[in-house]
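Hi U.,

Before I forget, here's the chain from the pilot set. I'm dumping it here mostly so it's searchable later in email.
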Amino acid sequence: METLLRGVRHALLALQFFTRVPVTGRLAAWVGYSPAMLRASAAYFPLVGAVVGALAAAVLAWAPAWLPDQPARAWVVAVLACAATVWLTGAFHEDGWADTCDALGGVVPRERALAIMKDSRIGSYAAVGVALLLMLKVGLLALLLQTHATLAPALAWAAHGVSRYAPLWVMRTLPYVGDADGRKAKPLADAIDGRSLTLASAWTAALVLALLAWRPLAPAAWCGALLLALLAGWRLRAWLARRLQGFTGDTLGATQQVVEAAFLLGACMGLATQVG
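Structure:
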């Protein structure tokens, strides 16, 4: 029982850190806080993704009924779904993607890239990178709604859960190279231990099994999504190892965003192959 309650506290702490879900007042006092607890909460990142993804799935499933049946409806609903998740997370991961684009978009030395990443100002690479990534995700969700409307909510839900597992592997396999005093992720940027990674793997596997148990989900969509997400995460991790020789809190957010988009793109490609 004590182990279960400790896990609930860690999950709520992760939810409090990464979303606007109100873990406040007496609940926050019961959850508590310590650097060790925040570090342990990394095991529940996929669950946070499942919560965020549930909001996206709800918008994709219910919003179309409130709009005219016109070709533009899918695009409006896709924008609303993306806007809902950005609001729920406070654009936390998008901010990391923006800073990573500014730092690594140009050809600059490692030390200069790390310095750029600490600058809160938005540069041209950040503006273009965020715009392109959001347009890609909106376009992919709209495409899924137009071609496989019954699958779109489930795939969006899974994309958020699976993509929040990817940064854990970066944390596990690369050293932290950011500024210890000014880093955003604080204890979360420390290397994740094997127990937490195993637990996160179990939660991610549970998400996968939940999708596979849903009979309408086409195997081609899942296989394409998983393979492209794996490839994107692996290539981004290799890029960080080459350019920075490690990771920062911002690059963890960038990893989540890239893998989420890759998951949706892979799903669309898999479905296209199946149709063809």
